[in-house]
Design a protein that fits this description.
Elements lengths: L14 H9 L10 H4 L4 E6 L5 E8 L2 H20 L9 E8 L8 E7 L4 E9 L2 H13 L6 E4 L2 E5 L4 E2 H8 L7 H18 L9 E7 L4 E7 L23 H10 L2 H21 L1 H12 L6 H15 L10 H12 L13
Length: 350
């Protein structure tokens, strides 16, 4: 599948979504805003460890602006990590601010250093887009990954997700002699399933990471999304299946070589069972979230119509033709694939 060249539209955080975020303690008055970070004079390209253009830039701020940002960004990091205990701020320092005009959300990446031990960490400040926030919330509920994020009006703050970017993993590890092909293939199948069930799109190789954890006998793998801008936005059903992106071909080939169809089906069923359990464990939160999502605007009428028709044909179920929003399409896709009739009672269509 070719790249989607058009930049995704942004959708504001509505009253219902803001209420959901407040109820779940994701809303907080922050010391810094996205717009404040845009107040830089100039920038220069940030090179990676191989001295190649990283597609990120290093902004240059006036001294008085930098001084204020250093304090505000340290406080924001502590609020994200501790919920408000500012006692650690004094020994934190902003080492670097990076800006990426290439991404949909034009994010800032903040590198924070602990001056006591020189340990560093990253977090991100982005424009608050409703699509992305729904993506983060669904990831928190439906995946094995906890998501740490805060919203303040038009500003979204996210914790850094550590791991090897998918494109780098494909280049460096898919032909590595120590690679456990079956384990990584299994995780990609499960990742592919999670993305399609909840309609998370654009999982090209640079939009997910591979987390490798040494175990007592073998390395464990987890594939997890790091970009949630394309939650329930595009009309093409294949856009929600990582297997159809060309830059994932090496992993897809590895899956077909290592797993037969029966095994792939087993892993899909395993993941669906786990998602059911996660949703049941957070039933009220899932209910509140989907109520918001079903009534929200997350895409264009043309894209909604296209996905409505494609899901109708895929599931051979005319109920999808009655869906009016991307939220309703996501809800019915989840309920149909997981075979959970109860979840469909959330929809205003009932």
């Amino acid at each position: 599948m070719g790249a989607n060249l058009k930049r995704k539209l942004f959708f504001p955080v509505g009253v219902e979504l803001e209420s959901f975020l407040k109820k779940n303690r994701r809303c907080m008055k922050l010391p810094v805003t996205y717009d404040a970070l845009r107040n830089f004079e100039s920038s220069y390209p940030l090179l990676d460890t191989r001295q190649k253009d990283s597609l990120w830039e290093s902004p240059i701020y006036e001294p008085q602006v930098w001084e204020q940002l250093n304090k505000s960004l340290g406080e924001t990091y502590v609020r994200l990590k501790t919920g408000g205990d500012l006692s650690a701020v004094e020994h934190l320092m902003v080492d670097r601010i990076d800006f990426c005009a290439f991404g949909n959300s034009s994010p800032f990446r903040i590198r924070i250093i602990n001056q006591f031990n020189d340990n560093y960490d990253y977090y991100y400040i982005k424009q608050a887009d409703a699509s992305r926030i729904y993506g983060l919330a669904l990831e928190h509920i439906m995946s094995p990954n906890s998501m740490n994020y805060l919203v303040d009006a038009g500003t979204l703050v996210e914790e850094h997700i550590a791991g090897i970017p998918g494109d780098e993993y494909i280049k460096r590890y898919t032909n590595h002699p120590g690679l456990n092909k079956i384990r990584i293939a299994k995780e990609f199948v499960k990742f592919n399933e999670r993305c399609f069930i909840r309609l998370l799109g654009d999982m090209r190789s640079y939009n997910y990471i591979v987390d490798m954890t040494p175990d007592f006998e073998e390395t464990q793998y987890r594939v997890r999304a790091i970009d949630f801008d394309q939650q329930s936005y595009e009309g093409n059903r294949s856009f929600y299946l990582p297997q159809f992106f060309k830059d994932n071909n090496a992993i897809v080939d590895l899956c077909t070589e290592s797993l037969n169809q029966d095994t792939i089906r087993q892993y899909q069923v395993e993941e669906r069972t786990l998602i059911k359990r996660r949703c049941n464990s957070a039933r009220q939160q899932m209910y509140d979230l989907m109520i918001c999502m079903c009534g929200d605007t997350l895409s264009t009428p043309a894209k909604i119509k296209q996905l409505r028709e494609e899901l109708t044909r895929y599931h051979n179920n005319k109920i999808f033709r009655e869906c009016r929003t991307m939220g309703e399409l996501a809800l019915y896709n989840i309920g149909t694939i997981l075979d959970e009739p109860d979840i469909l009672t959330i929809s205003p269509m009932n």
